[in-house]
Automatic annotation (TrEMBL):
Pfam families: GDP_Man_Dehyd (PF16363). The keyword Acetylation does not apply. GO terms for biological process: galactose metabolic process. NCBIfam families: galE. Keywords: Carbohydrate metabolism, Isomerase, NAD. Homodimer. Its cofactor is NAD(+). This is UDP-glucose 4-epimerase. InterPro entries: NAD(P)-bd_dom, NAD(P)-bd_dom_sf, UDP_G4E. GO terms for molecular function: UDP-glucose 4-epimerase activity. Its EC number is 5.1.3.2. Residues 6-329 form the NAD(P)-binding domain. The keyword NAD applies. It comes from Dawidia soli.
Amino acid sequence: MKEKILVTGGTGYIGSHTAVELINSGYEVVIVDDLSNSQYEVLDGIEKITGTRPVFAEFDLCDERALTDFFAQHGDIKAIIHFAASKAVGESVQKPLLYYKNNILSLILLLEAMQRLGIANIVFSSSCTVYGQPDQLPVTEATPFKPAESPYGNTKQVGEEILRDNCRAVPATQAISLRYFNPVGAHASALIGELPQGVPGNLVPFITQTAAGIREQLLVFGKDYDTPDGSAMRDYIHVVDLAKAHVIAVQRLLSGQQKSNYEFFNLGTGKGLTVLEIIEVFERVNNLKLNYKIVDRRPGDIEKIYADTALANQELHWRTELGVEEMMRSAWKWQQHILKNA
């Protein structure tokens, strides 16, 4: 009998790719999503890729009654991957209370439900934003947290603290936080990808929408950062590589391979690329020219960050396989799929 995995936020960008990798690895997938930043049709893409349609429940995890009713029907879940959260740095600066409610309350209610039902295993969708602007690069798991540069980043810091404290208080709980850097790209089939509602908060969807003529101009925030070309630097990771790491984390929990009941890992490529470098790669591999303008810095953004991935490579036996050219090629292929099926 297949082990059942709950994926919260599973019709979202990273969640949908992880659902595909879980199904391909032989797990039964159940998705909960309120569709606030995703679409029901994502389930069609998952089904076309895998041949299996996940069980789907539409509700807000902050709705305690709906969560209780859900678990009454799915008490046999073996592990949870918790993606469901608001995730745009810029929006979080403007709407901090929304982010604290959605991201913190949902985690607390989920952990309470796990304890009631005896579900031990959870993989938490964390972020490199927990480090703020580090004093030294690359970032290792030993890098201390600094004050978050945005409410979004703070919700990930607090989320990790809640998990750590809960694991201390409830030793039967097993948790892994995956601190990922900047996921980009799309599935090779172009049947699922990043599909933000409204104006994108992330760079690559803005790039692809500008290339497609949906956006008139791409704004590059910052021209005086301490980087080779003055634009901000990030560690970009292909979403499929990231999804596979979540499957490995679930397997680690279910097989009891953890060194402690709360672990955390950086997931990135270990290489920093600037915004202007990403634009150059996108233009080159897709033979396109982008209309972009360099403007002042954006509140909440950090200057530069990239990962030391040695711990994840060693402990999870995971490493990235897809490079930046494939990231930009697949992102554009996905945008073309969206236009074709609009």
